[in-house]
Amino acid sequence: MGGFRGHPWRICLHAFQTLAFGHYLFNYQYSFGWGYGPSMLPTFLVDGDIIIFDRHHRRGRDVRVGDCVAYHIPVSPDEDGVKRVIGMPGDYILMNSPGASSDRMLQVPKGHCYIVGDNLPWSRDSRDFGPLPLALIKGKAIAKGQISGWHPWKWFKPLENSLTTDVPS
Amino acid sequence: MSKWFQFRSNPRVRRFGEFSWYLFVFASWLPVAVLANDHFFEITRVNGPSMYPFLNPDKDRSLTRDCVWTWKYDAHDKLARGMIVIFWSPFNPETRVIKRIVGLEGDVIRTKPPYPVATVQVPPGHVWVEGDGDVTQDSNTYGPIAKALIIGKVTHIIWPLNRVGRVNWEEYAAEIRRNS
């Protein structure tokens, strides 16, 4: 290997370049995070689930209704959340939970999506802060799991979008 | 002499090896550039009339566009009225928009025509942004924007050369207070 000499400055430089490469992988390819909170039961546990995100779906690229997405919570900018998309721009959605006192509908505005947690009574989502700008989406959840046992290939289970069209269009 | 050694010492292969090494050295700096561009600074070209006359004052006379220096570290924090910020458009997640912050969370804003109600309070985690010009699509169209949409703060104008310098947004803070 030419160019790599053991000088401390050079080692620092290469460490920095490696960190920057990790930042690129984590922000533009795939990342992981720990889910916390009851809002996505039963898809994600209250504590301890590791979720893998596909960052190619950042800013809502190719996100479909039924996907779980990680997003910046609009009302608290430094926190992230994971919720399920139930409406994309132009879709008509129920603004509150089914069976709530109001059954108003809303057309999701341009560039926005409507997200709710799977655990409807224990979730803070679009029903509180309204449609979410797609630009706040960080990535799509593609797998979940826990590190337990000696077989890394058994740790994670892929998450599939269970919404499929019965009638071929 | 192994076959492999013969292959490696072939001058053509050696030249290609050197070239790919320099390519690798170049590529190893790309993630550093991405990191700097994501979290520290960016040079942005401003299109459109929304910040007229502060930016693009010659929009009707020339085709050149202003270039600005954007500081991106801690973009969601230490926001103030009068600052010029760049953020992702709420209506189109792939376009960036440049506007001036007019209200912070909790402020009561007197809105302008396209907005459906006369006054509005800015919700937590949001800011109210408006363009300086008359031709602008801003919070009066799409409402308060989430702070997490903000990419960075415009700190300096770097092109054209006759207006190079720091953006004195503090002067505008006083103006906003006077007008409201």
From TrEMBL, chain A:
Keywords: Hydrolase, Membrane, Mitochondrion, Mitochondrion inner membrane
Family membership: Belongs to the peptidase S26 family. IMP1 subfamily.
Active-site residues annotated for this sequence: 39, 83
CDD domains: S26_SPase_I (cd06530)
Location of the protein in the cell: Mitochondrion inner membrane
GO molecular-function terms, A-Z: serine-type endopeptidase activity
Pfam name, any one: Peptidase_S26
Organism of this sequence: Apiospora kogelbergensis
PROSITE patterns linked: SPASE_I_2
Domain Peptidase S26: 37-96, 106-142
Name of this chain's protein: Peptidase S26 domain-containing protein
Main location: mitochondrion
GO BP, sorted A to Z: protein processing involved in protein targeting to mitochondrion; signal peptide processing
GO cellular component term of the entry, any: mitochondrial inner membrane peptidase complex
TrEMBL record, chain B:
Sequence similarity: Belongs to the peptidase S26 family. IMP2 subfamily.
GO biological process: protein processing involved in protein targeting to mitochondrion; signal peptide processing
Any single GO CC term annotated in Swiss-Prot or TrEMBL for this entry: mitochondrial inner membrane peptidase complex
Ranges for domain Peptidase S26: 26-112
Gene3D superfamilies with a match to the protein in the record: Umud Fragment, subunit A (2.10.109.10)
Keyword Transmembrane found: yes
Listed name of the protein: Mitochondrial inner membrane protease subunit 2
GO MF annotations, alphabetized: serine-type endopeptidase activity
Transmembrane helix is among the record's keywords: yes
Pfam families (alphabetical): Peptidase_S26
Main location: mitochondrion
Intracellular or extracellular location(s): Mitochondrion inner membrane
Membrane topology: Single-pass membrane protein
Organism of derivation: Apiospora kogelbergensis
InterPro entries: IMP2, LexA/Signal_pep-like_sf, Pept_S26A_signal_pept_1, Peptidase_S26
UniProt superkingdom: Eukaryota
Active site: 50, 99
